[in-house]
Design goal:
mainly alpha
Length: about 70
């Protein structure tokens, strides 16, 4: 999404990012009634001169490792 559209998403849905790749996968999964759980670590904050928390990816990894045995 363009930066302008991202701003619309942020205002309308209170989101902090957009994920176009997973949106496409989610649409396919929905079409075939396949459950989907997507977890992403945002990294393009540096492109927009925003602070980047380097622990975000590691925290996501720890969360996934804890979640997998529960599925």
């Amino acid at each position: 999404a363009s930066r302008g559209l991202g701003d619309v998403y942020k205002r309308q849905f209170h989101s902090c990012g957009e994920d176009m790749e997973t949106a496409a996968v989610a649409q396919l999964c929905h079409s075939y009634d396949i459950p989907l759980l997507s977890l992403r670590s945002l990294s393009n904050t540096l492109v927009h001169q925003e602070d980047y928390d380097e622990s975000a990816a590691a925290n996501c990894q720890h969360f996934v490792c804890a979640l997998l045995p529960l599925l």
